[in-house]
């Protein structure tokens, strides 16, 4: 409900009636926000942990796009990526995969707020989650701001300012909060986790907080204070002016930036791609699917500067590297990501890159290993995004099928869920 309340107050097209219909069928306020369905929602986070993974992808996209297009005195790509995390996100394994990589890549414009309330659905987390989260993230290479009062706006503001001052590390803001804050009988307990407080407890909470207005009655002065439309329009106008100056100084780069952000293909792509395909059809070769994939990447890579992809530590087997590959850990303006052994994280990060725009991400792993990544593949289908996932049978280095135990062999990856109707498998 927090995101919907903020979207409503700041001026997005989300009427108060939609807040009243929270979690109701066909409302614009489903329990898990959905991109493309509710104004202002930037991703469908899905199961816990994928939101921070998407955020890492967005931060990678920002950093890489800035390196590719910004010029001295013309910083047209210059935004921060903010994400909220809870105890459940921290427990999910994907958070380790993506936060480790974020630290390695020094994503200085990624800021994560950790809502540390010590409660999950089953109760107090001490029985199943006792990590030293601050030390964990410092080990990843993050800047950690400890001891932030999550109910103190000034403390949060100071923490954000500290985070933004650190430019070579992502930042984690450790915000200590009380779940169900203000509820006399349910604050700090799992009874306020995803369940209604009930009319009697709501009345007591309103009294404890000194809130005397009727339900969904928001005073005009609060609307006025929160309304961000005018400020947003001013910032957009300032950016448009900045981009106009950029376009005057660098017309070709500006045209290319506009094309990529619109998600359009290069004007000559179809003709050149068809020429490549026609040559293959005229002289068909019996080659491994992974080699065919590399040939396609080699042919299309020079045509698509928006290509940004990689493999989960299987580049020699998946053949995701091509002659124009430049790893982003070596060249900030590069086009290749060494994801390491992080199948789930890789795929969810690619979703974030796709959502950001400006890139056409691709990933690759063995077909069997996609079971680790399957939920992120599902989320890509639900969001109708277009990351390319290359899935290959397990082979040896010569291209032959590698003898293996059943644990390493592909057992098939059928479109067995309704959500996969939006997934094209090759």
UniProtKB/TrEMBL annotation:
Q: Where is the composition biased (Basic and acidic residues)?
A: 388-404, 416-426
Question: Which reaction is recorded as catalysed by this protein?
Answer: D-sedoheptulose 7-phosphate + D-glyceraldehyde 3-phosphate = aldehydo-D-ribose 5-phosphate + D-xylulose 5-phosphate
Write the record's keywords in alphabetical order, separated by commas.
Magnesium, Metal-binding, Thiamine pyrophosphate, Transferase
Gene3D superfamilies xref list = 3.40.50.970
Which region ranges are annotated with the description Disordered? 388-426
Give the SUPFAM superfamilies listed for this entry.
Thiamin diphosphate-binding fold (THDP-binding)
Q: Does the keyword Disulfide bond apply?
A: no
Coiled coil regions in record:
none
From its record, what is one biological process in GO terms?
A: pentose-phosphate shunt
Q: What is its EC number?
A: 2.2.1.1
The main enzyme category here is transferase
**What's a Pfam family in this record?**
Transket_pyr
Which intervals hold domain Transketolase-like pyrimidine-binding? 287-426
Answer whether the UniProt record assigns the keyword Magnesium to this protein: yes
Source organism, top-level taxon: Bacteria
Task: Give the similarity note.
Answer: Belongs to the transketolase family.
Task: Please identify the protein, giving its name as recorded.
Answer: transketolase
Q: Give the originating organism.
A: Klebsiella pneumoniae
Q: Which gene encodes it?
A: tktA_3
């Amino acid at each position: 409900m927090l995101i919907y309340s903020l979207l409503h107050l700041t001026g997005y097209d989300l009427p108060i009636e939609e807040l009243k219909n929270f979690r109701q069928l066909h409302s614009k306020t489903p329990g898990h926000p959905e991109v493309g369905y509710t104004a202002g929602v930037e991703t469908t986070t899905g199961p816990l942990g994928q939101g921070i993974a998407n955020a890492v992808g967005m931060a990678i996209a920002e950093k890489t796009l800035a390196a590719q297009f910004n010029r001295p005195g013309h910083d047209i790509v210059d935004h921060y990526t903010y994400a909220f995390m809870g105890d459940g996100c921290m427990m999910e394994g994907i958070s380790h995969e993506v936060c480790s990589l974020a630290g390695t890549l020094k994503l200085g414009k990624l800021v994560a707020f950790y809502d540390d309330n010590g409660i999950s659905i089953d109760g107090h987390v001490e029985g199943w989650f006792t990590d030293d989260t601050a030390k964990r993230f410092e080990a990843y290479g993050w800047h950690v701001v400890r001891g932030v009062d999550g109910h103190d706006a000034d403390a949060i503001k100071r923490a954000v300012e500290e985070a933004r001052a650190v430019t070579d590390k992502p930042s984690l803001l450790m915000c200590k909060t009380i779940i169900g804050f203000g509820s006399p009988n349910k604050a700090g307990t799992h009874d306020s986790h995803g369940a209604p407080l009930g009319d009697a407890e709501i009345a007591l909470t309103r009294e404890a907080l000194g809130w005397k207005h009727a339900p969904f009655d928001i005073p005009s002065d609060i609307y006025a204070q929160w309304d961000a439309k005018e400020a947003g329009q001013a910032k957009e106008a300032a950016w448009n002016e900045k981009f106009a100056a950029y376009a005057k100084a660098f017309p070709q780069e500006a045209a290319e930036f506009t094309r990529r952000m619109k998600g359009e293909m290069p004007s000559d792509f179809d003709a050149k791609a068809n020429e490549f395909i026609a040559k293959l059809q005229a002289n068909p070769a019996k080659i491994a699917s992974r080699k065919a994939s590399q040939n396609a990447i080699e042919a299309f890579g020079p045509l698509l500067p928006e290509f940004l992809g990689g493999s989960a530590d299987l580049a020699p087997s998946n053949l995701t590297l091509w002659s124009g590959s430049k790893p982003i850990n070596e060249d900030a303006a590069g086009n290749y990501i060494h994801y390491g052994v992080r199948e789930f994280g890789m795929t969810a990060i690619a979703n974030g890159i796709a959502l950001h725009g400006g890139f056409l991400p691709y990933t690759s792993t063995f077909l069997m290993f996609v079971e680790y990544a399957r939920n992120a593949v599902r989320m890509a289908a639900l969001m109708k995004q277009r990351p390319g996932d290359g899935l290959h049978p397990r082979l040896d280095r010569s291209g032959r099928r590698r003898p293996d135990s059943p644990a390493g062999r592909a057992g098939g990856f059928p479109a067995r869920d309704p959500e996969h109707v939006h997934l094209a498998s090759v």
